[in-house]
Design goal:
- The complex is a heterodimer of chains A (290) and B (204).
- Chain A has helices at 4-16, 21-33, 35-53, 61-72, 85-95, 101-107, 176-180, 198-206, 214-230, 273-284, and strands at residues 79-82, 111-114, 118-121, 137-144, 159-161, 171-174, 235-242, 245-252, 257-262, 265-271.
- By secondary structure, chain A is of the alpha+beta class.
- Chain A has two domains: 4-53, no CATH class; 78-284, no CATH class.
- In chain A, the strands form three sheets. In chain A, strands 4-7-8-9-10 form a five-stranded antiparallel beta sheet, sandwiched between helices. A three-stranded mixed beta sheet of chain A has the order 5-1-6.
- Chain B folds into two domains: 3-94, RNA polymerase sigma factor, region 2, helix turn helix motif (Rna Polymerase Sigma Factor, Chain: A); 102-183, Winged helix-like DNA-binding domain superfamily/Winged helix DNA-binding domain (Arc Repressor Mutant, subunit A), CATH 1.10.10.
- Chain B contains eight helices and no strands.
- In chain B, helix 2 crosses helix 4 and helix 5 (120-133) packs across helix 8 (163-183).
- Residues 97-117 and 189-204 of chain B have low confidence and may be disordered.
- Classes of the chains: A alpha+beta (290), B mainly alpha (204).
- The interface between A and B is large, with 62 and 75 residues.
Chain lengths: 290, 204
């Protein structure tokens, strides 16, 4: 004999999604022999019917209030720039052949924003003003389907402007200021006395990424993950060109891994996306491979 | 509104036609309002919460990707707004939650007679009261199911929970609510139940 709880759980499911014929038989049989459960079943049914029928009409003030508030909303709504989907799709298939992370980075032209209105630019690397004299690096970041959590407050929620009709669901939010800003200055050509690390590059290129605000960096990644991850396919990646080398990072939400490539050679890979991202940041403090 | 129509309206709003948002409000206000009303228990709070939820939805519309129904996404926002309001009012402390509720369930008293159910209005009042006594986490699952009409899977999407957890919360919510209604003599039993027997008890 199963316990009462089993039958009570069946009652609850019966009210929602129904039972299999076998379960229904079992339940009926039990209810015939157990007045306690039969009473509870009646109570379940009554309260469920009551809840489902007890619907109020929303006051007229509701929609009026919402629309008034929208009309009064002076804040310029953040915009979303869409990635050109076909290119990404092409690059995506390339990546299966162990190449194309950086190609993908180059293919997309995106702007990311974090809290203070700082931005990361991803540009076609061919157009990057690389400084030949120093082991200068430029940072490129691409993200697909990644939304960036700004300060974590509501002000940063995005609006989409479909730049490309076919790009409807590859969206990046950005703040209004950034949307209108001119591209970030190219990296300053400060010679590096020590071997550059990825984070050095990130700090220099991005400006706002520093030892002190690595949490912002993680928050950014997390923001991307939370939104994108909850909604399916998500990736975050960026590449660093270091002289003539390219170091690329990517996470693949589906495959739950992070990969760091030096050119075509995978340098490291980790599993478990968020932890991986944290690891990535630690790894990034290591000197670039020589 | 079909999903295609919804998508079209959303596109219009996103491309700058803010007034188009009103159609989304109209199509969903009843669901949002009733969800908030059952979560918060007061019409005034429900109105505030509904407006806040719609405004948030408007601001975050670019985040909606159409992977779920728009209403499910909206209910998620609404339900979060409600929990925030409860939290601010000191009516919800998530740190006190264990996630599992093992409180003993009083089984129905033998004097319970379903035929003796009071008038419908009285039942409703009692159910509303009982609902307010539920832990907000359980209330949320039950209200999304019985008031908003979402499936287990949709509730799972809205709350980031496994469907199994959703099912279990709803079941527990109903048991607690039933126990409250019966034990407090509100509608299903004239006197408090003294029977604390739980699962595995005697089979009559």
């Amino acid at each position: 004999m199963r316990d009462h709880e089993y039958y009570q759980a069946l009652m609850s499911r019966l009210l929602d999604e129904g039972l299999t014929a076998k379960e229904e038989r079992e339940l009926k049989e039990h209810l015939r022999s157990c007045p306690e459960c039969a009473k509870l079943f009646s109570a379940f049914s009554n309260l469920t019917v009551s809840l489902r029928e007890d619907m109020a009409e929303p006051p007229a003030a509701l929609s009026r209030g919402v629309m008034d508030r929208i009309a009064a909303d002076k804040e310029e709504r953040p915009r979303v720039i869409h990635v050109q989907r076909p290119e990404l799709e092409r690059e995506r298939s390339k990546r299966r052949s162990k190449r194309g992370w950086t190609g993908l980075a180059a293919a997309a032209c995106l702007v990311l924003v974090i809290g203070g209105g700082a931005f990361w630019f991803l540009r076609d690397k061919k157009t990057l003003p690389l400084d030949d004299a120093a082991p200068e690096a430029a940072m490129m970041r691409a993200a697909e389907n990644a939304a960036v959590a700004g300060t974590g407050e509501e002000e940063d929620v995005p609006e989409a402007i479909s730049a490309e009709g076919d790009a409807a669901d590859a969206a990046m939010p950005m703040t209004a200021e950034a949307a209108m800003a001119t591209p970030a200055p190219s990296p300053t050509a400060t010679p590096a006395p020590e071997p550059l690390t990825v984070m050095d590059v990130a700090r220099r290129d991005v400006g706002t990424i520093s030892v002190d605000n690595i949490p912002a960096f993680t928050a950014l990644l997390e923001g991307g993950q939370v939104i994108g991850g909850a909604q399916g396919d998500w990736e975050f990646l960026f590449s660093v060109t270091y002289g003539d080398r390219e170091i690329s990072f990517a996470t693949d939400e589906n495959e739950k891994r992070l990969v760091w490539w030096d050119g075509n050679t995978p340098v490291t890979a980790a599993h478990g996306s968020l932890e991986s991202l944290r690891n990535m940041i630690e790894l990034s403090e290591a000197p670039l491979p020589q | 509104m079909t999903r295609e129509e919804e998508r079209a309206v959303i596109e219009r709003v996103l491309s700058g036609d803010n007034q188009a948002f009103e159609a989304l409000v109209k199509a969903n206000e009843k669901g949002v309002y009733n969800l908030a009303l059952r979560m918060l228990g007061s019409a005034e709070d429900a109105l505030d919460a509904s407006q806040e939820a719609f405004f948030k939805a408007y601001k975050a519309l670019g985040n909606f990707r159409g992977d779920s129904k728009f209403s499910v996404w909206l209910y998620r926002l609404t339900s979060n707004v409600c929990l925030d309001m409860l939290r601010k009012a000191g009516r919800y402390d998530e740190t006190s939650l264990t996630g599992e509720d093992e409180e003993d369930l009083p089984l129905p008293d033998s004097r319970f007679d379903p035929q003796a159910a009071l008038e419908r209005g009285e039942v409703r009042r009692a159910v509303r009261e009982g609902l307010e006594r539920l832990d907000p986490i359980f209330r949320q699952a039950l209200v999304l199911r019985d008031v908003s009409g979402l499936t287990y899977d949709e509730i799972g999407q809205a709350l980031d929970l496994e469907a199994g957890t959703v099912k279990s919360r709803i079941f527990r919510a109903r048991r607690k609510l039933a126990a409250y209604l019966m034990a407090d003599g509100n509608i299903f039993a004239p006197e408090p139940s003294k029977n604390e027997t739980k699962g595995g008890g005697e089979d009559a």
